Structures are given as structure tokens and as C-alpha cells.
Amino acid sequence: MQVFDTKLAGLKLIKPKAFGDARGFFFEGFQEERYQALGMTDPIVQLNFSRSTKNVLRGLHYQLAKPQDKLVTVTRGKVWDVAVDIRTDSPTFGQWDAYELSDENHWQLYIPKGFAHGFIVLSDEADFCYACTDYYDPASEKGVLWSDPALNISWQIQDPILSAKDKVYPCLKDIPKDELL
């Protein structure tokens, strides 16, 4: 397994060692001691899966009352995965980083508390897996507008397919500091 620091402190790109042959592949997607060494010290308590079609954009989401570390990976297809630093005391507050995650590269992104997260599907379909360190809490779910002009995120697609709530989240500058992490 190779671990890369990103331009945002705490955000890690993980490239697991995959073993493949004509039958397929195998890779270790989580091993508690190794991932704890990366800073993922809270236990994983929830595992989520989503399936989305091409051009679906999910995000940018975070939880306020029950913030989560997330370990994300794509089990089928390809996505452009984005994390935005919303830690008000961070020197990289308001900056973003993104990586292409796919079933071919097996890359993972470790997203600690204090980041808004989203992705857009680049393949015909994508299956996405989130390992989370706290339970989903709809009452504390928040979001940042995917198209926030100050963030200027390169989503790679002009007209994404969005949920009703993802269309109306506020820009980062309009979110009160006590509703950020």
C-alpha cells in the first residue's frame, strides 16, 4: 500500500497493492492497524454503497453534529472525487483537491472530519463505497453548493444530474462559521 499526502492536510490518497491475474484481482481494502497509522483512529461504524449513472453529481456533503472520517473507493466504474477543506482554522480553508477513483486503479481517498465531499460519475455507471466513522444523521447533514464560484471546482462535466438538495446548498462564504467544522 502506498499513501500520499495531498495539498490539503489530513486528506490522503491511498493506492492499495492489488494482485491480479486472468481470473481477476484481489486487494486489501481495509486493515485496522494500517489505517489507524494514517490517522483513521475512530472505528468504522457504517458502510454505505451507492450506484449512480453517468453525469450524476453527489455532494458536496458533510455532517455538522456527527462529523465523519470517510474512506471511499469505487468498486465499479469511474468517478472524479472531490474534497473541500471546511475547517475554519485551517490554512487551506476553502481549497479543494480531487482524484479519479476507479475499479481499475483501486485508489482510495481518506477524508477526515472537516471536509465536504462529493463526486461525479465519469463512466456509464459507478458503484461507490463509503466506510464512515460515525452514523449517518440526516438532521446534521449540511452541504456546500457544488458550483460555488469561489471554489471554482473542475468537475469535468458541464451539466451534471443533481438531487434537489444539492442544487440549493449555499456557497461556502454564505455558511455561518458555527455551521462549519
Q: Which fold name is given in CATH as the topology?
A: Jelly Rolls
Largest sheet entry: 6 strands, antiparallel
Give the amount of beta strand, in percent: 35-45%
* Succession of helices and strands: EEEEHEEEEEEEEEH
CATH homologous superfamily grouping: Jelly Rolls
Q: Mind telling me the C-alpha Rg? A: 16 Å
The secondary-structure class comes to: mainly beta
Strands side by side in the biggest sheet: 1-2-10-7-12-5
| Count of extended strands | 13
**Could you say what the CATH architecture is?**
Sandwich
Domains (count): 1
What does the model show?
A hairpin with a 2-residue loop joins β3 (18-21) and β4 (24-27). With 181 residues, the protein is mainly beta. The chain is globular and about 50 Å long. The chain has two helices and 13 strands. It has a single domain, classed as Jelly Rolls (Sandwich). The strands form three sheets. The chain has a six-stranded antiparallel β-sheet with strand order 1-2-10-7-12-5, with no helix packed on it.
